[in-house]
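Cross-check.
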Amino acid sequence: MPGETQNIAAMAEKASKEIFDVFGWRHVGPKNKNWGCVEQEKHDRRRARTHSSDVVFRYEDPWSGKDVYVTSDLKSYAKGTVAQHPVASTLRNLSRAVECANKSEEFQTLYVDFNRQHHVMGMLFIYNHDGGYDEDFSKALEGVQPSQSDVAENNRLGVVGPKRVAYLHTVAKDILIAQGKKGELGPDVQCEFYYPNLQTIRFAKTTSSVANLETLLCPWLVMRYTKPSLGISQTGYFIYYDGHGSSVDEFQYLLDYLFKYQIATDHVKIAIRMVFAVPDAPALFEKAKGNYSEDYWPIANVSPEQVRQRMANISFQTVTSLVPTFSEVELGMK
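Predicted model, tokenized:
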């Protein structure tokens, strides 16, 4: 790979590490590694007899308790070339790699801890290194038919497009800033990601230091923190929401989630933190709180005053988007 191209590719690797480190993922095994295909006829690998893994991440899945290994295809493109990316063929190659990785002794020897139950997933990670791409990459995904991606049964793929990369990078940086010495939470706070909708699943944890791939692709990410104050632990939540907040109904749906899963309880502070909020979002949020308060208390067997107090503890905060940018020259010198 030419030096210039290699440096651009390294940007995606660096961006992914900065993001996923915060969410409890850890890099394992060799990078940029080819390993043998074990389904050569099925995967039409008679010429190219290998699959590749740019980076493999590992985390303990809060849902199943198993180790999840994410074999990742990391792409780095300028604005003008993102739209030209052959999504269907890339997903097809990645899905075939995932199918083989779950069977391949070579892959497992390179990356997997045999002493623990595990499963391999795939991730396509597309980083826009010049920050100029502002299109909706999901439209490109909508044009991919299931037969084109060729995902085998029980296998999973996740796609983190350019906008999602910027969003997750912003959330990760915001969490690190909040945990800093001068941050809103401070360094002594204990932070975990919260899974309130998984309490009926046998192996599920309600809190975990890991945000799994499925959660990172959801509309909101719930982080619970426990903060010591005068000898008493205070619990609160950061709710990172990827919407625009352009309607009252949008916020009422989010509030319903908070009350349904008993996140919004007495004396618990909740900050709705938004990266892509429209200018009117704060006003619409307050209106949604008022509407929801009127509708909620009669059916929840609580007093209007209790609901108002809980609503007072739910605040709206905007988070400045931080697009990850790296120096090609600096990366080339390392």
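The two ends are 16 Å apart (CA to CA). Residues 72 and 123 are 5 Å apart (CA to CA). Passed to J.P. for a second look.
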